[in-house]
Specification:
alpha/beta, disordered C terminus, elongated, seven-stranded mixed β-sheet, 15% strand, Rossmann fold, binds S-adenosylmethionine, 9 helices
Amino acid sequence: MSVLKKLFRLMPDGAQSAVHGLVENLPWTRRGRHSRWVRNTYSKFGHDQRRLIFLSAARFLHINRPITGYYLEFGCNEAKTMRMAWDNFQYLFDFTYVGFDSFEGLPEIAKIDEQENWKKGKLAFSEERFRDICLGHGIPKDRFRTVRGFYDKSLTPDLARELSARKAAVIYIDCDLYLSTVPILAWISPFLQVGTIIVFDDWNCFCADPERGERRAWREFLKANSDLRFEPFVSTAEGQAFICVNVDTGLVSNIELTN
Ligand SMILES: C[S@@+](CC[C@H](N)C(=O)[O-])C[C@H]1O[C@@H](n2cnc3c(N)ncnc32)[C@H](O)[C@@H]1O
């Protein structure tokens, strides 16, 4: 072991982290090059891909105006996509922003959703922090709402009725799992209009297996609602968006708004 490594090991934890931070930012070290590439190229690519989805949605919705109403987001976590939605829509549209989340992280992972990185409670983020971030970012309080709870319990007919004054312009689904996506799709039908954009953030999870994840939930939804028509929209490394082009007949949903 080199003398430098021995000295490093003798340092207290705080000093070790400081040295780590310093080394990570030295441009000529391998570690420094690695962390800069991750930050400036790899992570930036992921961010830019999501931005592409939101900007494409803004272009589509503006060119085909008026398609207005809600930005509904299922899977809120650290408010990255909620903030991105606001950043890319605020100057063109007066949407109302609604975030749906357990705010306790992922639910119990069932067999069909098992994968190494999914664990019950992972991605937990408090509702209060989420709200503070969104309001601090500039989303107006009177056009912002959160709905707390696991989707199989929180997405009730009463809630649909309560929100039914508007349709959705954009529905952003970012909840990773098949069993989380199913109740969302069963609930959103009353909010669809011609031009509604549905985004699946995790379209390529589970190695893009059509029998799992958001792909499976979407296929089953389309089968149960064969009179609804959607066209593919933006496609990225991770996500896939669709545009609703027909809502005339045959909606199958767990909601009966008219009775
Ligand atoms: C990947 S994170 C969302 C990331 C978020 N869009 C962002 O940009 O920060 C997934 C979120 O989905 C939520 N979630 C997953 N399944 C859920 C369920 N069945 N009911 C409620 N929330 C769920 C988790 O709590 C978590 O916050």
